[in-house]
Amino acid sequence: GTACPAGKTVQAAELEDITFFWPGQVQPTLRIPSFSLAQGETVFLSGPSGGGKSTLISLIAGILQPATGSVMVNGTRMDSLPRASRDSLRGDAIGIIFQQFNLISRLSMLNNVLLPCRFSAVRAQRAAEKDGSPEQSAQRLLEALGLGSELWNKNVARLSVGQQQRVAAARALVGAPPLIMADEPTSALDADRRADFLHLLLRQCAEAGSSLLFVSHDAALADMFARRVSLAHINRLHDGVCS
Predict the structure, then answer these.
(1) Whole-prediction pTM value?
(2) Which distant-in-sequence residues (6+ apart) come within 8 Å of 21 by Cβ?
(3) Which of 124, 113, 219 is nearest to 168 (CA)?
(4) Which residues have a Cβ under 8 Å from the Cβ of 200 and sit 6 or more positions away?
(5) Computed from CA positions of residues 144, 126, 96, 224, in that sequence, does the dihedral angle turn out positive or negative?
(6) Contacts with 50 (C-beta within 8 Å, 6 or more apart), sequence order
(7) Rounded mean pLDDT of the chain?
(8) What one-character-per-residue DSSP string does 187-214 give?
(9) Model pLDDT, residue 243
(10) Dihedral (CA of 47, 51, 54, 56) sign
(11) In what order do the strands lie in the sheet with 68-73?
(12) pLDDT (tens digit, 9 = 90+) per residue, 191-218?
C-alpha cells in the first residue's frame, strides 16, 4: 500500500480489501473493498439478521481475523497483531455493547461497569483523569444513564432488561474508548425505550468524543445518526448486483 499522506487524520476504524470466510465456506461472508468510521462519527449500519453485521463487528474488534485485507483501529493495524496484543488493543480502544449484554451475573452493577478499567490501564487512567477515579467515572455514567446510587450494588441478574442494557452501555463507555460498537442492543426494548436509550448513548459518545458504530435491522432508528450505511452497500459479494 501507499504511505499515508502527511496530516492524514487517524480513523476510529478503517477496513481495506477485506474478505472473510467461515470454515468450510467457498463463498466469503464478507467482501468489503473499503469502509471507515471517522473520529467522533456516528454511523448506523443496517442489514438483515444473519447478514454478517456481527461478523463485521468481530473483525473490527480483532475477535475474528480476515482472510485478506487490513483492519485499522485508532491508527493501529489490528489484524496483523498477535492475539494477546489484539486483546490489549481491544481493551484500550473499543467498547462493545453486545446484543445479549454479556454482563457478569455474579457482580454488582458498579463492578460490571468497572471491568474495562480492571483490564485496561489506559482506560483506567482516562477515567481517573476525567472524574478523579474509575469508580467516580462509572458512577457518573450510571447517573447519566438514569441508574441512581440505590442500584449500584445490586446484582445485575436482578435488574430489568432496560437497566441491564444501560449497564452494558456504561461499561462500554467507561474510560472513553475512541470506538464504541453496539450490536443490536435495542432488540429487547419497546419503541419509546429504544429512542430514550439511543439519546442517552449518543449524548455520552459525543461527550467522550467516541465514534459509534450502531448495528441494527431497525431502520426507524437511523435518522438519529450522522451517517447511514447498509451492509449490502459495503459488502460487495456480488459486484454490480444489489443484494
Answers:
(1) 0.92
(2) 27, 28, 29, 67
(3) 113
(4) 144, 145, 146, 166, 169
(5) positive
(6) none
(7) 92
(8) TTS-HHHHHHHHHHHHHHHHHHT-EEEE
(9) 36
(10) negative
(11) 30-37, 13-20, 68-73, 76-77
(12) 888 999 999 999 999 999 999 999 998 8
